[in-house]
């Protein structure tokens, strides 16, 4: 009888080990972040390797806009990360508009974002802090221009409280590494964010995925202009006004050539009837507003936060913006809570940033 008992004990022990191993393997599979399941490809902008994966149905977009980051599965059911040609989903779309969905697999430069003075907010992934001053500040202070972000969120909350006039969303023109976009999405707002720099949009998309916020945000990789053209984004993106036509200047790196679109082109992507417009597009504000007449006619812009420091140095843009906005009832303020607007005749000496609002 003894050998029989020994065999039974050995069988039970093996069965227990097999079940335990299955549980461990299953748990490990389930806890893996979804963005680590893609194929590894080398990013053309850096020596880092990226894991790219399209998330189905996110972000939510209008059927009139072209999604260019579409991926197809191979015979094994995997989604290879390869460059895709634009896919037309309906007649009459605006082909230059590029809705961006590519993420990267990285955790080395991610930290929590401070919101309204409180830590442990959403995760934000940045560029290498040793190579980018903004990234260094975010890693150190857990925010970038936090007072301006907080002010924008308070203005949006004020207008969003009126249920009869509809909700407010953020139009983040020049989203950079996504501080405004991620904060607004985390607080529950819909966001349309546009930037021409691929590497920055990859980081924003990754941050949104890590926070499960991709459904709140539509990312667009284009330059804003008054017309359609292909433009070369210079390596120094602090002055996008210096972009040029790549056809007339040899063969620039393809990852730095983007399509310029107008704000009017982006109307189908705005999810609410009212928007808070944040404009920080490095001296291209005048060019963008020259293509925004229909946008302002169809969508209620409740407030515009605009970097004015560079605009005021270009007389044509300064005069155009003043006329474009004042004829639509806007006045400029140092702070959105100020009662007295800035004097238009002294716009050359306005502060670094201004808030455009219609008087109450």
TrEMBL record:
Spans annotated as Disordered: 52-95
Residue spans of biased composition, Polar residues class: 60-88
Domain named Methyltransferase FkbM: residues: 172-331
Pfam families for the chain: Methyltransf_21
Top-level division of the source organism's lineage: Eukaryota
Transmembrane intervals: none
Gene3D superfamilies on file: Vaccinia Virus protein VP39 (3.40.50.150)
NCBIfam families cross-referenced by the UniProt entry: fkbM_fam
Name this protein carries in UniProt: Methyltransferase FkbM domain-containing protein
Species, as recorded: Batillaria attramentaria
């Amino acid at each position: 009888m003894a050998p029989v008992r020994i065999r039974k004990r050995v069988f039970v022990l093996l069965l227990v080990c097999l079940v335990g191993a299955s549980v461990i393997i299953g748990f490990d599979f389930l806890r893996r972040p979804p963005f680590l399941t893609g194929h590894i490809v080398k990013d053309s902008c850096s020596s880092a390797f990226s894991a790219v994966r399209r998330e189905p149905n996110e972000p939510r977009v209008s059927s009139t806009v072209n999604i260019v980051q579409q991926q197809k599965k191979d015979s094994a059911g995997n989604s290879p990360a390869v460059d895709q040609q634009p896919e037309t989903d309906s007649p009459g779309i605006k082909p230059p508009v590029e809705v961006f969905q590519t993420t990267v697999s990285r955790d080395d430069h991610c930290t929590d974002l401070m919101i309204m003075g409180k830590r442990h907010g959403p995760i934000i992934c940045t560029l290498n802090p040793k190579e980018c001053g903004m990234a260094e500040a975010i890693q150190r202070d857990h925010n970038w221009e936090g007072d301006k972000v907080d002010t924008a969120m308070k203005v949006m909350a004020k207008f969003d409280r009126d249920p009869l006039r509809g909700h407010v969303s953020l139009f983040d023109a020049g989203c950079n590494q996504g501080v405004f976009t991620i904060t607004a999405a985390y607080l529950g707002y819909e966001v349309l964010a546009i930037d021409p720099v691929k590497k920055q949009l990859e980081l924003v998309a990754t941050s949104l995925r890590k926070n499960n916020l991709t459904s709140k945000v539509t990312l667009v990789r284009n330059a804003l202009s008054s017309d359609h053209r292909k433009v070369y984004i210079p390596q120094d993106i602090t002055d996008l006004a210096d972009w040029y036509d790549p056809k007339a200047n040899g063969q620039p790196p393809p990852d730095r050539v983007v399509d310029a679109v107008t704000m009017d082109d982006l109307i189908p992507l705005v999810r609410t009837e009212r928007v808070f417009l944040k404009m920080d597009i490095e001296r291209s504000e005048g060019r963008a507003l020259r293509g925004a007449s229909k946008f302002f006619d169809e969508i209620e812009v409740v407030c515009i936060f605009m970097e004015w420091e560079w605009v005021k140095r270009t007389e044509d843009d300064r005069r155009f913006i003043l006329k474009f906005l004042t004829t639509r009832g806007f006045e400029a303020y140092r702070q959105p809570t100020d009662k007295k607007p800035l004097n238009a005749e002294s716009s050359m000496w306005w502060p670094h940033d201004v808030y455009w609002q219609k008087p109450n």
